Queue: 2 jobs
Job 1
Amino acid sequence: MRTLLDKVRTRGHWIVRIHPTLYRPDRVARLEDLEQAVRDSAVALRGWDFPHYDLGEPRKRSAGYVEQSVDWEYCVEFWRAYKSGQFVSIAGLLEDWRDQSTIWPPSQDWRSGATLGIQETIFRIVEIYEFAARWSRSLEIEDSLVVACTLRGLQNRTLKAGPGRRPFFGAQTCSASEWSHSLTYSPAELLAQARELAIPPAVALFEVFGWNVSPDAIREVQRELRG
Amino acid sequence: MMGPNDLRLAIALGREQRGTEFKGPGEKTEKAFLAKVVRAVLGMANKPDGGTVVVGVDDDGLVLTATGLTPGQLATWGYDDLHSSISNYADPYVDFDVRVVSLDGKDFVAIEVSEFSEIPVLCKKGYPQTLRQGALYVRRRGKNETLEVPSHVEMREVIERAAEIRARKLLGIVAQLGPATVEQPQLAADEMFANEAKDLL
């Protein structure tokens, strides 16, 4: 039987891993507290939150973790939180799943895997860093945190300008199949400047597409998010 | 930033979410209606991450209907006027933006409210049956409605958020003085985390 994870992996997707630097398998004693930490740390700066904690759907519990998956409209995603303080999110790129959406149906020229939305990507990276900051607070993590992101399914994908912005003169196309970024931060850094920390990964990702964007341009897009 | 797809998504969810409140069509000049919108705005300002108040969607408690605004109604929802109205009721202030969202040929107003950035926002002026001077309005967890802080749960959330926002600002000042100490993960720990999630990676 094909699982939701198998499904997500068939198209472009994010893999996000956030964990402390010290491994303690029972950093969080109770699964209930772990679930509450995910709920408290979820970031809702726009229409859809990261990660999506769905109150209406059951979470699946195991001895060492709690997880949830969502497959609704163009949102196909999965998250798992471990008692060790590790959090993993594997989420399909929203624009890759328009063919199963009634509220954002594919246009005639749509093809899954063809584009990567600039605004959507910048927003997602902010959400990842803001979540990491809140995760460190919710779990009262005192050691540092590793924030690792991988974006898969990039080959031949073209950058797409955000709404109301000028399109590129030439196509900014990626020849690599994936991109990764991983760095370690102190909780204080994350709490103090999550949005600023989200800028270098965005710059590095867009460079792979041949777009040399300035940090200020990223900041400008970030300002379109609430908060 | 709410665009047509976000609005479609919010309506498709079929009910109000904690970060979205719907109001039916109306003019800003209707005082009783404006007071209800202001109450929703104040509640969103006190919610973590803020939220959006959408004008033009009817909610009878069972079904959401995307009615839209007439050109005459839409014209009354300019930012400057609304800013002035909200300022009359909010203390200290509410940071928000107003956007017109067009969906299937209909227009809606989306008031995007940021979470308070210093201290929680209180209602500084009353309006009969809708707003009470001195009240703290919040979005209730679970039931997704705006009301005066109903219990210690919501009150604690607001107080904790205010403390966190203040602490994060202080940390920002400290961060400018010099880089924080970052402990690099030991290889063994890295492997243990990777091993833990190996069925996913």
Job 2
Amino acid sequence: MPDNSRRALNFLLGSGIIASLASFLYPVAKFLRPPRVPEAPVNEVRVPGASQITPNTARIVKFGTRPVLLIRVNETKWRAFGATCTHLNCTVQYRSESQQIWCACHNGFYDLNGRVVSGPPPRPLDEFVVRARGDEVVIARRS
Amino acid sequence: MSVSLTVLLMLAPAAASRDTCRDCHAALEGPLAKPALEFARDVHAHSGFGCASCHGGDPTQEDPALSMSRARGFVGKIVRTAVPRACARCHNDASLMHKFKPQQRVDQLTQYLTSIHGKRLAQGDTAVATCTDCHGAHGILEVRNPQAPTHPLRLPATCGRCHADTRLMARYGLATNQLAEYQASVHWEALSQRRDLSAPGCATCHGNHGATPPEVSSVAAVCGTCHALLEELFRKSVHQPLFATMQRGGCSVCHGHHKVERTSVDMLDGQKSVCAGCHEPGSPGARLAAEMGRRIRELRSALDRSDQILARAARDGMEVSEAVLRQQEGREALVRARVAVHTANLEEVLAWTKQGMAVAHATWQAGQEALRERDRRRMGLAVSLCAIALAIAGLWLKLRSVEASRPGL
Amino acid sequence: MERAMAVQAARRWQGWLEERLGWDRVRMFLAHKEVPVHSGTAWYYFGGITLFLFGIQVATGILLLLYYRPTATEAYESVQFILTRVEFGWLIRSIHSWSANLMVLTAFIHMFSVAFLRGWRRPRELTWLSGILLLGLTLAFGFSGYLLPWNTTAYFATKVGTDLVGSVPLAGPALARFLRGGDEVTGATLTRFFGFHVAVLPALTTALLGLHLALVQRFGISTPPWLQSRGDVPQMPFVPNFLLRELMAWYLALGVLGMLAALFPWPLGEKADPFAPAPAGIRPEWYFLAAFYTLKLLPSHIWVLESEQAGLIGLGLLALWWAALPFWGVRPDGHERTRLLTGTGVLLIAWLSTFSVLGYFK
């Protein structure tokens, strides 16, 4: 076989193999790089900017797929509950003036233990554990 | 009164041990036996009370002349006008009721006397409801017992026994469609189908013992015991003082009082508009309602469009669960916008529709991005397939050249 | 000039490695290795393709291992994480799932082609037996891996599968408990299946595969008996002819795999909820469908046994008989039991295909 066409053939084969290998190795290389958020927030959620939550106010935080109501009771005490009302699934909110959790839909009230105080909700709110270390606040499931 | 009460109390334990009234009457036939048989499941029987507790007489005596002797306090059948006081003898006595149920209310008679039923009974009208009409006379069950006529699930039918009876209500000039209308409402649906016992029945809004239809000015407050946020918004609105002067008050102007149906944006404008009842077409009020309706519908369509594109992306294998979750926020904003309608203030509604539209926009973008990512993947596939085809071509040609020199196959 | 220097350097490196690794013997062996050429040669590729797909499984499996978490609380979320947050995670995962299914298919094709081409005859009985065991291990890989995303279909399919194992007479309940890590399918089952899937089964497979491949090299590719009698069968050098062809086949498989992964990405489903009722129409994976459907069709009692017990015993005996093929496929006098062989093979394929289809649609 003439040398030129032989070289062309080898070149074709080589480049085909290299191109295909590149198209496999490129995704693998990207896969190996850790993503920006390194793990799925399943058991624990770090709350960004928690220090900005003033005492006796609350914020809704996403925990996996559900909303959680994070309440800063005072400078050092935090509580967290599932923010879904147990009556008809509306999202609850915190009332600073009475320090109670309130559902606007049918006027259900819960206390700071998540227990029903008045109104139609049949069950207490799910409670979550809050750990505060300095400026960092972490919400976790109750085990 | 207190003497006979003491006698009753002394007799009560004795009645528990031997009750000739029940023994005799149970052996009789027909209507005379019924009370004795029914009493077996009565809540009073379980607390140690007997026939003599209400009817007087001596339950330890077998001789009817003695057991049913007037001298021993026997009153026989209690006339309808005397029923409330007869029950109140115990139920109005706090120290007595405390022995059995410390938290039991003892103001039922006081409340009853304020009600239409109580007032008319005092005037001698025996056709109105007394204690026994709603609670029963001999097989009285606690309200929380599902078989009791006063249980939330059965109460509307109990009230309806009279209030849906056209012949009876004709005497008072009262309508009889309330039960039928109530049974077409969302409240009854919640009660009967979802078994949500917190949903309102007749007594929730009208009161039970002090049953009186709410005054026009207090309708909103009554609805507001559950729909507190809506009452708050309504009170801030221009409608509140105006509705107070109308024949039907507050919430019932737009929502009705018994036939409270599922709300929809169609109540604002269009064929089914309730606003059109007062606001003529083209008036500022009508235009405001139309604008609210337009914005709400716009938000709803935007959210539906996002749902569709996300569903498409999901069908094509893309992972869009986060955007789907974000849609929840949008749906909540839609609910809040519809709720804000009660302020009769466009700005309040717009605040929520704007928020909702932002969410719908974001999820729409997410859907678009997902579809673009899907296309990028397909492009990537095409590129790698080309590379593979190139490699296969190279191999094939190499094979041919090898086999031309060294025959194999 | 530079080319000559490069060639010299390469030769020096070769010599250095050769002195220590003894490659020359391997090269000599490969240079002489031949493959029979006939109408059925195409079937020879399927063993290699199965091996290739296994390699892909190991590679993608190891990649997935970097992000996957084998507990009931985190498994589903970690797979979701791979699909949404890790770059090309969707690709690696879809390739892993599709390649698993393709590998089972090619393994079956390989087995049946060997059966029909009589590649199990003396002295290749151990190759056949190790192959059957490898098929069993492949199915075990499929069964254990299927549970790992911890979604609804996987959870209930595993429940049904382990319940069936429990129906095996005598050893059944103990075996089911061993598999499940308890009396129910729980997080313990997931962790256990994970251990099987990434450690136990790979170790066993590596050992058996080593044996299988060593035996294949030792005895070479077999020539069907009806050709042997005809005399000289044309041969193809393994290097480079067969190898180039095999590479083409592997690239083709890769292309198919890529298309499947990109156009039909493997779904994630919903997270398993053990307290929810089983959805209607729970089925095992397609490679178990034939057996599953057969068991469903059996009457509730056969003689003294319940239908599952009888069915499992029957299937077990069938598997044993098929594994023993080399021993009954040839009569003691050396003549083949051709009709029995062909009949069994055809019936087996017919049963597997029909009942798999039926099981899918019923």
